[in-house]
Amino acid sequence: MDAETLPRGSVDSKVDRRQASMETNNQQELADAQDSKTDLVEQEEGKFHCADYLGMKDITQLVQAMAQSAEEYARLIWTRRWHVVPFHRLPAWLKDNELLLRGHRPQLYTLRACVRSIFRVRTETGNIWTHLLGCACFVAIAVFFVAQPNNHVQWQEKVVFSCFFSGAVMCMGFSCLLHTLLCHSELVSRIVNKLDYCGIALLTVGSFVPYIYYSFYCVFWAKMFYVILISMLGCGAIVVSMSDKFATPAFRSLRAIVFIALGLSGLIPCIHFICVNGFWPSVNDCSVGWLFLMAILYISGASIYAVRIPERLFPGRFDIWFQSHQILHVFVVAAALVHYHGVVKMANYRLTVGDCQLPAGFLFPKHPFDSVVLLQQLKVA
């Protein structure tokens, strides 16, 4: 029905009702807006009064103090209350020997926590203390040896033995550092692993310096040749060990092979000396027997480490003590002490025999064995 057909009064009434409804809605919206404004004002006033009561500066200091206290408390709890974890809960970069099932350190985020962990019993305790005590032992021996007066031990002997002492101290010191800081972070773990491998190479090279020096005491070219050779092989082993893949568990056997091969390279000068002087004179005069015992200890320790015995036979029983890595450390310390005893006997023999009287052509012979033959002729004469 159109508006024209409706009575005029009814149309006016509808318009009035519509206008009244619109006015009511407008009034309601104004009232709501006024209420909202009042609430906001009350909230701001409440904040203002609260800030006045406590002080804006005090609130900031309080929040900062609470945050600092919470951080220090969390760090204290973490460093003093950490617990050993099973192997499967370690991060991937900390997983090395899956046959050690329990007793591992979690990741520790501070150097202080790592150092303090050496007094906690877990999988690395034996590894740390075997080489920590060994390092201290060789530091004491080195200080005692170097402190001898020159009329008892000449400076040449001090220099030669210092090469061996330095290699032993660095090898065991880097090993102790590795097992102490291994759990700090992935970056620190990679760094200390590489230092550990460098220490092994340095011990090997340093061990052969006094052995070669006294074996070819009167043969200058042989001393220089073999020292340079073993030094080059040691540098090669260090370069190989700088690879990140070399430190992974998958290359455990390769690591053992590389360092066993480096050690076996010392057989070359040993065979040279035996061929020229004979077997029994070499055993009696140059302590070849002690050097063979040293080689057996090194190779046995490295082989046990490579095959991971005894934990491979009894997983979980040797998590804390008598695991293969600890056995390797004990063998390394024992081999270094045996080597020291052997080269001391060699030094005493050479110093007892006296200085060499060098005949013509001795230092720079035409044939590699000429100087040794001349030395034998000198002894016979």
TrEMBL record:
Keywords: Membrane, Metal-binding, Transmembrane, Transmembrane helix, Zinc. The keyword Ubl conjugation does not apply. One of its GO terms (biological process) is adiponectin-activated signaling pathway. One of its GO terms (cellular component) is plasma membrane. The chain crosses the membrane at residues 128-147, 159-183, 195-214, 220-242, 254-281, 287-307, 327-344. Belongs to the ADIPOR family. This is Adiponectin receptor protein. It comes from Calicophoron daubneyi (Rumen fluke).
